[in-house]
Amino acid sequence: MKNLLAIIGAMIGAQDTIALDADGNPPEDTKSALQDLADALPGFRAAHDTLGKLRDALSLDAEAEPETILGTIAGLVAKGEQHDQLKTQVDTLVAEAESRKRADIIAGGLKAGKLTKAQADGWAASADVAVLTAFLETAPVVVPQGSTPPPPRDADDAIALSDTAKEVARHFGHTEEQIREFKQKQQAAS
Q: Do residues 161 and 180 touch, judged by C-beta distance below 8 A?
């Protein structure tokens, strides 16, 4: 019984041995400390169970200390962060490879005359590679091979003014050149 009292005393932080009264009861402060210990036992059991589950989940032996568990978890977190970084890099490389492949397919479609410049700059520039490939396999030639595009028109030819526009310009004190410049700015903005 003395050994049991010494163990209990050590658990509750008693400095001396626990002296029982004539009826065999411990002093009030000892009773209070024992009650606090009894109240804390479910939390200790839950923590012990949780540590056991962590050891099992981490494939650690049953005697692994909490520091070992924490170190293993920290290592897994670091691996997870590295995985995220590598996944981002791989996703970027995949997107770049698809973009290059799309550009190559578009170049082939232009060369074969199955895509116009407007199509290449428009919908084809953002089309899925598989869709674009399937389209080009069945697309007819729309730009004859060996043909040359018409030469660009002069800026003055590009913006021809009607007689009415010229008359309105004169009426409001503007020159034809001012009206052409204004129309060029409008075309460039659209």
A: yes
| pLDDT tens readout for residues 31-43 | 787 788 788 888 8
Domain with 44 in it: 1-64
Q: What is the pTM of this model?
A: 0.42
User: Cα 144 from chain centroid?
Assistant: 45
Local structure of 160: helix, strand or coil: coil
Q: Residues 95-120: pLDDT tens digits?
A: 999 999 999 999 999 999 999 999 99
Token output for 34:
């024992």
Residue 77 lies in a domain: no
Residues 58 and 89 in one domain: no
Does the residue 73 lie in any domain?
Answer: no
Q: Are 142 and 113 in contact (CB under 8 A)?
A: yes
